[in-house]
Amino acid sequence: MARIKLCLICWALLAGTPGCDTAASIESETGPGRWPAARPSVTVKRVPLGTAAELVRDDGGPPEWVFVSPDCRHLAYVERHRDAVRLIFDGVVLGEYESVDSLHFSPDSLRVAFQAAVGAGTAIVVDGRPGKVYDRVPAGLNFRRTVFSPDSEHVAYVAIRPNGFGRQFVVCDGKEGRPYSLIYSPSFSPDSQRLAYAARRGKGAVAVVDSVEHDTGQRYGFPVFSPDSKEVVWLASHEDKVQVMVDGRAMQGYDDIREVMFSPNSKRLAYAARRGDKWLVVTDGVEGEEFDECGRLCFSQDSQRLAYRAARGAEMMMVVDGVAGPGFTDVRQPVFSPDSGGLAYVARRREKRIIVVDGTESQPYDPPPSEGDPESRDDRLVFLYQIHFSADSRRVGYAARRGNSEFVVVDRVEGPAYDAIMTCGPLFSPDSKRVAYAARRGDRWHVVVDGVQGPPHRYILGCGSGGIQFTPDSKHYAYVAEGDDAWCVVVDGKEVGSYDKSSSRASGASLVFSPGGKHYAYVVSSTIGPSAVVVDGERIAVDGRMVTGACLAFSGPRSLYGLFRNGSSFYHFEVEIAP
User: Fold this and answer.
1) Gap between the Cα atoms of 140 and 492, Å rounded
2) How far is CA 519 from the centre of its chain?
3) C-alpha–C-alpha distance, residues 562 and 180, integer Å
4) Of 146-160, 213-227, 342-356, where does mean pLDDT reach its minimum?
5) Does 415 score more than 70 pLDDT?
6) How far is CA 173 from CA 1, 64, 131, 262, 458, in A?
7) String of b and e for 363-381 (b: at least 16 CB within 10 Å)?
8) How far is the C-alpha of 78 from the C-alpha of 265, rounded, in Å?
């Protein structure tokens, strides 16, 4: 049996213990006081994507080799066929080989590439067409073996020529580059028109940009493109000095350089440099103040501002726009507001936590109880003091702790005290007017929206996918929760569906709103009967269950889709909601 390895696409499944306090099997839960008020009229379409004779699994057993595209619209799987394996993409056979490895979808999800064993060598198969056969394609953490360009039009990978004494070269769209002893990280420019990588030849290293070599001395000069793709930088080491090279032009040399980065608009360049035992930040060729240590550079979204951490003696400080702030025991990564006008960061003064917003310090807070004690660490608590700006940049919020109580602070006003605040709270609505978070009092969790505490639950997913979500128009919110006996989905503080945890599960990873915010949908997985897609409270039976790694998604204001499987048969599930 051929030994086969494959890079798996991960999916965050709903974890932990299940259940809401009342279990019920429902067909519809709409009506007065519900949103939407009317029962939806839907058209359902199922498009077969193939039936696997025998799905290939990892050498050690599960998981099966089933892959979902980034947009959750396309499916690939590997099945055994006679004495070989073959890869099926959206129901179409893309070839039969001794073994396959390293499947990659293109960014637009319409193309697929993988490595296949052909005789004594290997080939990269793109869209079902095998390339030239080589000895092997290198593996390891330092390699991105097959990469698509951002526009999905080009493909590049690293190969070894047969009888080439292990020499490596990059193949881009079938064209071979020069051979090297070792090649690292081929990457395309953001506009997909350029290709660059770092390589070693003998005892020296080079940066290869658009097929042109640039000597980098003894240091690997990993090329980095500007966001507009017009410039590329890399590091070079000559005569005991390290230099930033900008399109081949050498900048001033230093004893060490790190964190080279372009601004979002590509017009500015910054990096941290060491001269002797002192560090400084160079911005647009101008040196900043010297410190014992500095780093974690961060440009604002408008590219006009730069912030970074610095140390002088035992004190840490935030340097913003070239001006060093007050000294603390420690400071964390700076956070700019979306409009770039605001800046906030978390600081520590001895054992107390302080939030600094636009230079103004908050009251001192206490550290999370799990800090410094891995045995008592609670993942729901480790996100205290994460700073959140609203979309309009006018509001800022975070979760904090004092004594044995935790609370949310929004616009410098402390909310009510709870035993714990969950994960990423607080969450601002898209219009920046509303605030939501999950909090625990005793052994029950509540969702608090606009200061109003919701019903108690045994557990609540946090924020984002499957957790607390606002509709795009900010008028409604929803989340998945667990009671003692059932899972439930809550919309605007009211249960719209409750499912016995012994036989079903409301999949929080699939809870979605339509782009205009007029509809919601989620998946209910059943262990004893048909699973279902629930749209606006209306239950639509489905055969089997959602494919692991897939998601439920709206493709338009009234169009919904997902990938499902019934045993080893796969299909694309589509729902159209009538106006």
Assistant:
1) 48
2) 25
3) 45
4) 213-227
5) yes
6) 32, 30, 9, 28, 54
7) ebbbebbbeeeeeeeeebb
8) 42
| pLDDT tens by residue, 379-401 | 443 467 889 999 999 999 999 99
344's CB contacts (< 8 A; 6+ apart) are 334, 335, 337, 355, 356, 357, 358, 387, 389, 396
Chain centre to alpha carbon of residue 284: 31
Does the structure show a pLDDT above 60 at 31?
Answer: no
Distance CA(107)–CA(467), nearest Å, equals 26
Residue the block writes with tokens 């409009």: 339
Half-sphere exposure of 269 (CA within 13 A, CB side): 18
Residue 91, classed as helix, strand or coil, is coil
Q: Which residues contact 427 (CB under 8 A, 6 or more apart)?
A: 388, 435, 436, 437, 463, 468, 470
Identify the residue whose tokens are 């056969």.
133
d(CA 168, CA 199): 9
pLDDT at 508 over 70: no
- Which ranges in 394-467 belong to alpha helices (H)? none
How far apart are alpha carbons 236 and 567 in whole angstroms? 55
| Peptide bond before residue 455 is cis, with ω within 30 degrees of 0 | no
pTM: 0.86
State how far the Cα of 528 lies from the Cα of 256, in Å rounded to an integer: 62
Backbone angles phi, psi at 374, to 5 degrees: -55, -30
Residues ≥6 apart with Cβ < 8 Å to 137: 102, 115, 122, 124, 145, 146, 157, 158, 159, 160
The CA distance from 72 to 75, in Å, is 8
Q: Output the six-digit token pair for 89.
A: 């993409």
- How deeply is 515 buried, as exposed, middle or buried, from its count of CB atoms within 10 A (0-12, 13-18, 19+)? middle
Q: Is the dihedral of CA 302, 304, 305, 306 positive or negative?
A: positive
| Neighbouring-strand partners of residue 183 | 199
Measured distance CA(234)–CA(198) in Å, rounded: 9
Contacts with 368 (C-beta within 8 Å, 6 or more apart), sequence order:
381, 382, 384, 401
The string over 45-69, giving b where at least 16 C-beta atoms fall within 10 Å of a residue's C-beta and e elsewhere, is eeeebbebeebbeeeeeeebbbbbb
Q: What's the pLDDT score for residue 6?
A: 29
For the sheet containing 293-299, what is the strand order?
A: 293-299, 306-312, 315-320, 323-324
DSSP state letters, 40-70: P-EEEEEEEEEE-SSB-EETTEEEE-EEE-T
